[in-house]
Predict the structure.
Amino acid sequence: MFIIGITGTIGSGKGTLVDYLISQKGFTHYSVRSFLIEELNRRRLPVNRNSMTELANELRKNHSPSYIIDSLFLQAKKTGKNAVIESIRAVGEVESLREKGDFCLLAVDANPEIRYKRIILRQSETDHVTFEEFLDNEQREMNSSDSNKQNLAQCIALADYLLYNNGTITELYNQLEKILTGKI
């Protein structure tokens, strides 16, 4: 079993990478977002970026910095198939997956204006924000000295590969394919 972790900035193309890995490479997808939405629904809490962030931080604090990712890894391990885990946001999550064996962390980024346009088009429950709110949300998730909180900047720095997604989907897929050809 090979695990690819995906990290990156808001609207950068994490889901696009996941779609390719599923459709072209047969990976099974495990989503932090889905994990959190399921728990928010169970608790009858609103599904938005703030509640998702608060819940994730709470779960990490109450269990371990890698709790969410470890839960998803256990699901993946049961199948024994290659898996992609999206979206890694805490350093403890990266460290935990590295300890488990065959693992590669991919980070994706793009210019903020491009990413904002993408989130407006995708219209998910967390994307109904102004450009200023978008930037504020991202800044809040970018750095933290608390190991239980999100630290996207450090996760991106820990990535094995960084993909830039300022162009077309085909260009992003080409970058990913070059990595996969050399790695898997």
Remarks:
- DSSP finds nine helices and five strands in the chain.
- Residues 143 and 151 are 4 Å apart (CA to CA).
